[in-house]
Amino acid sequence: MTTPRIRLSPLEVRERAACMCDHGDVCSSFAPGHALHLIQSRLAAATTAGWADALVTGVDRGQGLIEVRTLDGDALVLWNAGGAALEVAPGQPVAVHTRWDVLAIGSLRYNVARR
Description:
This protein is α+β, with helices and mostly antiparallel strands and 115 residues long.
């Protein structure tokens, strides 16, 4: 005799899904602004034409927001749940991969979401 399985609909599972960074832990999601996926990092490294040099113009550490202005004059507001805002200060040079949404702060790389 087998025990009947309880089947959850995909909707029920999706409603309860949350990244661990919402609970103060390490990101468990590769969604924009969360953990940097290895493939995303490699694609950004392989496509050097997508990088734009920028200067940090503002930081909101509480919200995880970083404001940058590229050397071409484009203003970007970037969000990261993994602590990128703790690593920068206004006036600091950074690089942003505009196609793969990767922020480079020195040798550190972060997945960012544009706001």
